[in-house]
Amino acid sequence: MTETDLCNMALSHIGEGLITSLDDDNETARICNQYYHHARRLVLSQYMWGFARRVEPLANIQVETYTGGYRHTYLYPEHALRIYRIIQDTEIRNGLYTSYSVKDIPNYEVFNLDTSTKVIGTNMTRAYVDYVVDVSDPDIFPPIFVEALTRFLAASLAQSLVGNMEMYRSQFQIYQGALLEAKNIVASERQFDLELPVGYIESRRAT
């Protein structure tokens, strides 16, 4: 699987001719080249795709400028597209962290110190980050991501290359369906512990 293969899948969705390379000297290749990486990054950022998810410690830095009153400033991960959680390191060490435990999410803020330094401000010490990384290798894209990406790209191409809004709406709707299917697939592969109310447990003991 290559970037050209993915673009050709998108083109076939809207009945357009295929290309041999993104570097081809024709309008179709130029528009595909213009839209492909934007579409890939956007679709990656729309969902917590397992293949693109990373959990790692943040790099704490010392700054002299005002950082919104936060006690700690961390460098924003270089290839992050979207942050889902900032996690205290003790949750990682003690096995308490799951991506669904939202009640303990700390306050944090993303901002720029200057034109080139993006940081995260938080009161957490030794913080970890759960985020989606900018994955560019098509060989590791799972089938449901390929479906979502090519459908979103097809919608973009239908609007810019073909100028057909009805085709755009149709492809975008299929893209949204692919995202929903991805959520269903992930949900079926995860197991949750069922926490029953205390009253229910006591009543079962009494019987």
SSE order and pairing:
Layout: H1 3-13, H2 27-45, E1 53-57, E2 60-61, E3 72-75, E4 80-88, H3 89-93, E5 108-112, E6 118-122, E7 127-133, H4 143-162, H5 165-188, H6 198-206
Antiparallel strand pairs: 1-7, 2-3, 3-6, 4-7, 5-6
Helix pairs in contact: 1-4, 2-4, 4-5
Give the radius of gyration: 22 Å
Count of discrete alpha- or pi-helical segments spanning 4 or more residues: 6
DSSP strand (E) fraction? 15-25%
Order of helical and strand elements: HHEEEEHEEEHHH
**E-strand count:** 7
What does the largest sheet look like? 4 strands, antiparallel
As residue ranges, the low-confidence spans are: 192-207
Shape: elongated
Rounded mean pLDDT is 84
> Structural class, from secondary structure content?
alpha+beta
Major sheet strand order:
2-3-6-5
The span between the termini is 60 Å
The portion of residues assigned to helices is 40-55%
